[in-house]
Amino acid sequence: MSVILETNGLSRRFGGLRAVGNVTFALQDGARQALIGPNGAGKTTYINLLTGVVPPSEGRITFLGEDITRLSPEARVRRGIVRTFQINQLFDEMTPLEAVALAVLERDGKARAMWRPLASHHEALDEAAGLLASLGLADAMEVPTAEISYGRRRLLEICVALACRPRLLLLDEPAAGVPEHERNDIMNTVANLPRTVSVLLIEHDMDLVFRFAERIAVLVGGELLVEGTPDEVANDIRVKEAYLGESLDAPAA
């Protein structure tokens, strides 16, 4: 299996604070990987570095063999690095169909054509409808986003991200605040994405992490503490110490 994303000696300082320190990490193509760590571990800063929201103080980021360290966030999206956010980013007055169709138009460089009514963009609407159906949202595509459940809104966020045709999908706590039955729907949807989409999940819920991830990376104090299979991570004494006794037991098969 080939490497899709790699960081070498990646660091970021904010004044005298080192938020991320010398992280060297490789993500395999088609991965189902989680990034975990206690609060303040540097997870968000690391993802901001990957997406270009903040530049590194040192180090290099390589994606699909290209050095993208200094590329803009927009250029990284065009290359296939797409992120969802923990805080819901959708416009309440839009329908899911409109939200996903707009993402399709933006991806194809047709956002300037939005002076035309959205209903005239038939190809974008057809693609959006297909994506929504594939995520179980066909029955909600014409409903204002404000009227659908929070869990389905999180699924819609993922659908908007998929409209950008990602090679790497960065999921920032996709099930945060979602009822249990909808959490399972979200994670099953992510797990069943085609392997042409690599997934890096940032999540605090250890049960979800251990059920979803094939490999787990642990950040502590801005540094990569350990990376391995769920069993390896769950049994690593350094990880247990970092979580100060929190349960990291992998669920029974």
Q: Which sequence of SSEs, written as H and E, runs from N to C?
A: EEEHEEHEHHHEHEHEEHH
Instruction: Fill in the CATH topology of the largest domain.
Output: Rossmann fold
Rounded Rg: 19 Å
> Termini separation (Å)?
26 Å
In DSSP terms (H or I, runs of 4 or more residues), the helix count works out at 9
The CATH architecture of the largest domain: 3-Layer(aba) Sandwich
Strand content: 15-25%
Taking the sheet with the most strands, its summary is: 6 strands, mixed
Give the strand order, joined by hyphens, for the main sheet: 6-7-8-3-9-10
Low-confidence stretches: none
CATH class designation of the largest domain: Alpha Beta
Mean pLDDT: 90
Would you identify the CATH H-level superfamily of the largest domain?
A: P-loop containing nucleotide triphosphate hydrolases
Percent range of helical residues:
25-40%
What characteristic shape results from the CA principal axes?
A: globular
Quickly give the structural class. alpha/beta
Pfam family, one: ABC_tran
InterPro entries: AAA+_ATPase, ABC_AA/LPS_Transport, ABC_transporter-like_ATP-bd, BCA_ABC_TP_C, P-loop_NTPase
Organism: Lutibaculum baratangense AMV1
GO molecular function: ATP binding; ATP hydrolysis activity
